[in-house]
Amino acid sequence: MKIDFTLNDLPVTIDVPDDITLLTLLRDYLKLTGVKKGCETGECGACSVILDGEVVNSCMLLAAQVEGCKVTTIEGIHGPDGGMNDMQKAFLEFGAVQCGYCTPGMIIAAEALLAHNPNPAREEIRTGMAGNLCRCTGYKQIVDAVEATANRRLAERQAGIEARGAGRENKDG
Ligand code: FES
Ligand code: FES
């Protein structure tokens, strides 16, 4: 069957068997191996992607279900220069990456969380990322990294608003 969808902001049209999962489509057909294969039963979150703004386990969906949808994988998350974005850098800074197997899914879940709630409490971060399991870090470092990224983005947004306000005042005299 033919599927048309948007993947990491680019249009994709691909012919695939109609019984494959979204995880198989992304990893085996499109070679996006940042999407990790873990439990394949919807338990671990290693295969997380953002589908039309919501985090989903790609192992639990059929590829056919993304027809006409917008999918973002870890390969679609980057900074303005194409390198790591602030969240990815914070994961390194706070020691939230050890073996790294859960990390793509964690970052996908964290980005979706902040898109919905730019200023989450620590408990909300824990709850928002409860579908993503990590066998290495003990989670504290992950919550620290997400919390720091949220705080930094809010501070940057506030600084931008103040700078624009000051610019307008100067222009108005
Ligand atoms: S591989 Fe999909 S939830 Fe574990
Ligand atoms: S860093 Fe190893 S599973 Fe999370």
Question: Your description of this structure?
Answer:
The protein is of the alpha+beta class. The chain has two domains: 1-76, Beta-grasp domain (Ubiquitin-like (UB roll), Roll); 79-173, DNA polymerase, domain 1. Helices cover 40% and strands 13% of the residues. The protein is built from five helices and five strands. It has helices at residues 22-29, 86-93, 103-116, 122-128, 140-172, and strands at 2-7, 10-15, 48-51, 54-57, 70-72. Strands 2-1-5-3-4 form a five-stranded mixed β-sheet, with helices on one face. Strand 1 and strand 2 (10-15) form a beta hairpin. Helix 2 (86-93) crosses helix 5. The chain is globular. It starts with a strand and ends with a helix.
Beta content: 5-15%
Query: Segments where pLDDT lies below 50 for 5+ residues?
Result: none
Shape: globular
Got a strand count? 5
Strand order of the largest sheet: 2-1-5-3-4
Query: Count of helices?
Result: 5
Count of domains: 2
Helix content: 40-55%
CATH topology of the largest domain: DNA polymerase, domain 1
Structural class: alpha+beta
Query: Which compounds are bound in this model?
Result: FE2/S2 (inorganic) cluster
Which tags fit this structure?
173 residues, alpha+beta, Ubiquitin-like (UB roll), DNA polymerase, domain 1, 2 domains, five-stranded mixed sheet, 5 helices, 40% helix, 13% strand, globular, binds FE2/S2 (inorganic) cluster
